């Protein structure tokens, strides 16, 4: 599944396999050529092994299997940018590259274990970008409410308009199969966000929580309509 985090945070997208069209689609969207990346290919040759069913596979002989492998290292490259910032290798045990488009879109494989391993390696590079010039990070405050999403929609729409000038976003998330739904505040002005907590708890007839599950009483009678 693709994970998209819109600007100013980096965006993450996950291709799945040799027959995935993520690289082609992103290249087309940004009008970029697909380029066979030599370093990625060298790492693939050194760190990957042909499947047992590919006993006659050769890196030097043309074949459908070779074409499929090469597709995984044909990456969108912006020739006007430094290529070293467009292709990242964050784990020495892996040949898999992280392709970076436009400086803020990161393409990772979709296999969960591999995705997690690469994301862990990428984390040190992403964290500084989540800080503003004053050194304040991005904060998230979570509320649990027993109210249906449609019941609090009017209040949350009004709240969103009020806090937007402060750079704060309001989110509303139904939780299928649960009695309580979630509301979030996300922004960088922590003091301002904290000042809104009592008002929001009252407005959604809810409570502030650290995790969505903290205020659950049961899993029956979802209240999401």
Give a description of the structure.
The strands form 3 sheets. This protein has a 4-stranded mixed β-sheet, covered by helices on one side. The protein contains 6 helices and 10 strands, in the order E-H-E-H-H-E-E-E-E-H-E-H-E-E-H-E. It has 2 domains: about 10-130, 3-Layer(aba) Sandwich (Molybdenum Cofactor Biosythetic Enzyme, Chain A), CATH 3.40.980; about 140-215, Alpha-Beta Plaits. Mean pLDDT is about 85; it is low at about 1-10 and about 220-225. It has helices spanning about 20-30, 40-45, 65-70, 110-125, 150-165, 190-205; strands at about 10-15, 35, 75, 85-90, 100, 105, 140-145, 170-175, 180-185, 205-210. Helices cover about 30% and strands about 20% of the residues. It starts with 10 loop residues before the first strand and ends in a 16-residue tail after the last strand. The chain is of the alpha+beta class. It is elongated, with a radius of gyration of 23 Å. A hairpin with a 7-residue loop joins strand 8 and strand 9.
Q: What average pLDDT do the residues reach?
A: 83
- Apparent shape: elongated
Distance between the termini: 26 Å
Q: Report on the biggest sheet.
A: 4 strands, mixed
> Could you say which structural class the secondary elements and strand pairing correspond to?
alpha+beta
CATH class type of the largest domain = Alpha Beta
Secondary structure: helix percent: 25-40%
Radius of gyration over all CA atoms, rounded: 23 Å
Number of helices: 6
Secondary-structure element series:
EHEHHEEEEHEHEEHE
């Amino acid at each position: 599944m693709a994970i998209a985090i819109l600007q100013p945070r980096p965006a993450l997208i996950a291709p799945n396999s040799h027959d995935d069209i993520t690289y082609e689609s992103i290249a087309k969207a940004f009008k970029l050529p697909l380029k066979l990346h030599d370093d990625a290919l060298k790492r693939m040759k050194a760190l990957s092994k042909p499947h047992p069913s590919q006993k006659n596979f050769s890196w030097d002989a043309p074949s459908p299997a070779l074409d499929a492998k090469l597709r995984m290292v044909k990456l969108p490259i912006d020739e006007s940018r430094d290529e070293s910032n467009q292709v990242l290798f964050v784990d020495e045990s892996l040949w898999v590259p992280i392709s970076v488009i436009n400086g803020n879109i990161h393409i990772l494989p979709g296999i969960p274990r591999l995705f997690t391993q690469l994301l862990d390696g990428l984390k040190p590079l992403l964290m500084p970008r989540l800080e503003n010039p004053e050194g304040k990070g991005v904060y998230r405050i979570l509320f649990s409410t027993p109210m249906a999403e449609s019941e609090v929609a009017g209040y949350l729409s009004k709240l969103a308009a009020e806090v937007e000038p402060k750079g704060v976003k309001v989110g509303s998330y139904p939780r299928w199969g649960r009695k309580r739904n979630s509301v979030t505040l996300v922004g960088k002005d922590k003091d301002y966000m904290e000042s809104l907590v009592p008002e929001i708890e009252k407005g959604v007839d809810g409570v502030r929580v650290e995790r969505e599950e903290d205020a659950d009483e049961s899993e029956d009678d979802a209240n999401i309509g």
